[in-house]
Amino acid sequence: MALQKKAVTMAVVALIAAGAAWWFWPTEPAPTAAAQRQMNPWAMPVPVRVVPATAADLRVQIKAIGTVTPLNSVVVQSRVSGPLQALHFKEGDKVEAGQLLAEIDAADYQIQLAQAQGQLEQNLAQLKNAENDLALYSRLREQSSISAQQFNNQQALVEQLKGSLRSNQAQLDAAKLQLSYTQIKAPISGRLGLRRVDVGNLIQANSAEGLVTITQSSPINVVFAIPENQLQQVRQAMRTGEPLVVEAWDRAEQQQLTAGVLTTLDNQIDIATGTLRLKAEFANQQEELFPNQFVNVRLNVAVRSGAVTIPQDAVQYGSAGTYVYTIEDNKAQIRQVKQGPVDNGMVAIEEGLSVGTPVVLEGLDRLRPGRAVEIITEQGSAAPVTPAEDTPRRRPQRAQ
Asked: Which superfamily does 62-69+217-303 belong to?
């Protein structure tokens, strides 16, 4: 019995000690609303980078896709037939007009020239003899020693031989011309392609395949097309009399290759596509453009002075149209804007913004109207805010 009472007493003492420890143990105060917001990453201010709208001169450009085309492209052909005797060029070389490229065996044409020369000399001798006889007949006719018919026949013979002589001279010139064709020369200046025939082959005159091609690459053209609704803008710019600058950019539109001027417009719109073809010329001294190369074209038609501009990446697109996020009282607000022309990553804002208005450039993905923001001013992107993985447990606050 004594042992039983002792055990009960000890149990009561333990309960009293545990209650006292719980009562007097220090507790953490309940988290405030601000602390709760800090624990919730979606309620925290969003880090953003802002840029002010600025006033700048903006080029009005028309963008298109173009193809580089040489001013002239020639297939070098032989004008006479014969064995190809020699080639005097290397593939890919630049050549000048009149430069010797190849030679055809000229033996046959030298023989033809010699024949024409011999026939000419033969007829020349006959003509000289006939003219001497005509002079004699003329004196005899004055003395009435010969008939008028004899004199007239001799005079006709002289004229006939003169005609034959002119024909012989033409044959001689033709033979010389054929002989000159055995030396194949560059018809234009430009760059050679790959040769299509080797030395020793029999060349046929005017073969469609030819020997080699020459393309004139300096200067060079770019042909591109614009929609017909932009035609009036281009024509108005051309009426000023100033040359319109055309820029050629690479396929990714990351690097400007070169710049030229607009030279001409086609004389009719393509009814199948509703576009008009234009041609621009580039000096291409360093051969920045290559024939048949694909390029992105930017045609500068005007300059808008003092336009309100912002980076193009700051503009957002929604069902209600284009808009940007502005900052008011450290909160994000939507501002509807009207876009204008774009120039090298900057866009003109025709309505909705004024110079100096800050717009959000980075951190747009988590913004909504009225969301608190934290403006980041140092270089680099704003660091993302991530929730803590292990939040310590807090005991409930004791009633006071």
From this structure: Efflux pump adaptor protein, beta barrel domain (2.40.30.170)
SS3 of residue 83 by DSSP = strand
Length of the chain equals: 400
Q: What would you report as the CA-atom Rg of the chain, rounded to the nearest whole angstrom?
A: 47
Beta bridge partners of 225: 277
Q: For residues 21 and 17, give the distance between their C-alpha atoms in angstroms, rounded to a whole number.
A: 6
Chain Cα centroid distance, residue 29: 68
Beta 94-95 vs 73-76: how paired, if at all? unpaired
In this predicted structure, the answer to whether residue 356 has a pLDDT above a threshold of 60 is yes
CATH topology of domain 78-203: OB fold (Dihydrolipoamide Acetyltransferase, E2P) (2.40.50)
- Measured N-to-C along each axis, helices 148-180 and 107-142 cross at an angle, to the nearest 10 degrees, of 160
Is the confidence at residue 37, as pLDDT, over 60? no
Longest CA span, the chain: 196
Rounded to two decimals, the pTM is 0.64
The DSSP-derived string for 301-348 is EEEEEEEEEEEGGG-EEETTEEEEEEEETTEEEEEE-EEEEEETTEEE
Name the residue ranges covered by the structural domains of the chain.
Answer: 50-54+306-375, 62-69+217-303, 78-203
What are the backbone angles phi and psi of residue 229, rounded to the nearest 5°? -75, -10
pLDDT (0 to 100) of residue 36: 47
pLDDT at 140: 81
User: Contact 257/250 with Cβ under 8 angstroms?
Assistant: yes
CATH of 50-54+306-375, one of 2.40.420.20, 3.40.50.150, 3.30.930.10, 1.20.58.480: 2.40.420.20
Four-point Cα dihedral 6, 9, 13, 18, nearest 10: 100
Q: Which residue has the tokens 């392609």?
A: 193
Choice between 230 and 22, residue whose per-residue pLDDT is larger:
230
